[in-house]
């Protein structure tokens, strides 16, 4: 079937016909359908693009600054006491201080809370709530020979004889911890001294005398004098020459 001629189409248009049922060839109809689908796709794409642009341009930007308050009134003044009373936080505030607590560490002795004063260059041994004058540099072989009066051996270790610990060997029950104050400075203790004290079931803590006294006062108040013992060398102690 051939397509209608141009003259026929003009004649039909002049007669006022509004509808023409003409069967077009398959090739022409397929081309028309493809063209219409492409046109519809382009129109849909353009409409979606316009909607995206409208959303972009109509988005409102939030304000970054807060509104200025109408008044500077913050209400009635607070009556709450915000000051911290550290006295009420002291859990040991009502616990009595042991009489063997060390009040002062002197160059040649100690002053205890009970009023007892230990002088003449002696140290002190505090065991089971009792205070004893202690001179470990004179115990055993330390009192004579080339190493007379010395407590630091040639290896730089704090080393004294077993006879200096005779009181710890006799007391019962044994304390859990022995705090050693080794004078103005601290030194490692020799393996023999540590081994002997540990054989009595007592742990050892080593410090200089001033810090050892502070630790003893705290632990003896907290745990009791039966659990904590102390052995102190005066702050002014000086090792004699070899």
Keywords:
alpha/beta; 5-stranded mixed beta sheet; 242 residues; 3-stranded antiparallel beta sheet
Brief rundown of the structure:
This protein is an alpha/beta fold. The chain is 29% helix and 14% strand.
**What's the main sheet like?**
5 strands, mixed
Shape: elongated
Instruction: Give the helix tally.
Output: 5
Average pLDDT confidence is 78
| Strands ordered across the widest β-sheet | 5-4-8-6-7
Oligomer: single chain
Q: Residue share in helices? A: 25-40%
Element-by-element helix/strand order: HHEEEEEHEHEHE
- Number-wise, the strands total 8
Q: How much beta, percentage-wise?
A: 5-15%
How far apart are the first and last residues' alpha carbons, in Å?
A: 136 Å
* Gyration radius from CA atoms, angstroms: 51 Å
Uncertain segments are: 17-22, 53-57
Derived from helix and strand composition plus strand pairing, the structural class reads alpha/beta
Kindly describe this structure.
With 242 residues, the protein is an alpha/beta fold. The protein has 5 helices and 8 strands; from the N terminus they run H-H-E-E-E-E-E-H-E-H-E-H-E. The chain has helices at 6-14, 26-58, 166-170, 191-199, 209-223; strands at 102-105, 110-112, 117-118, 123-127, 130-134, 177-181, 203-207, 228-232. A 5-stranded mixed β-sheet has the order 5-4-8-6-7, sandwiched between helices. A 3-stranded antiparallel β-sheet has the order 1-2-3. Strand 2 and strand 3 form a beta hairpin. The model is unreliable at 17-22 and 53-57 (pLDDT under 50).
């Amino acid at each position: 079937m051939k397509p209608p001629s141009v003259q026929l189409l003009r004649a039909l248009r002049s007669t006022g016909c509004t509808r023409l049922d003409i069967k077009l060839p398959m090739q022409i109809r397929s081309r028309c359908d493809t063209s219409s689908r492409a046109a519809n796709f382009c129109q849909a794409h353009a409409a979606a693009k316009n909607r995206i642009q409208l959303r972009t341009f109509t988005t409102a930007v939030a304000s970054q600054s807060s509104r200025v308050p109408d008044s500077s009134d913050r209400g009635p003044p607070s009556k709450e006491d915000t000051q911290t009373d550290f006295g009420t936080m002291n859990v040991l505030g009502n616990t009595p201080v042991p009489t063997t607590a060390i009040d002062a560490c002197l160059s040649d002795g100690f002053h205890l809370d009970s009023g007892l004063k230990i002088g003449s260059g002696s140290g002190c041994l505090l065991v089971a709530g009792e205070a004893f004058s202690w001179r470990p540099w004179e115990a055993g072989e330390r009192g004579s020979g080339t190493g007379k009066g010395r407590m630091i051996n040639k290896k730089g270790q704090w080393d004294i004889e077993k006879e200096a610990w005779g009181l710890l060997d006799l007391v019962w029950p044994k304390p859990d911890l022995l705090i050693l104050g080794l004078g103005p400075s601290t030194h490692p203790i020799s393996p023999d001294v540590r081994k002997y004290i540990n054989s009595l079931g007592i742990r050892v803590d080593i410090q200089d005398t001033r810090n050892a006294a502070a630790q003893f006062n705290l632990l003896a108040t907290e745990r009791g004098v039966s659990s904590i013992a102390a052995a102190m060398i005066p702050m002014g102690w000086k090792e004699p020459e070899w």
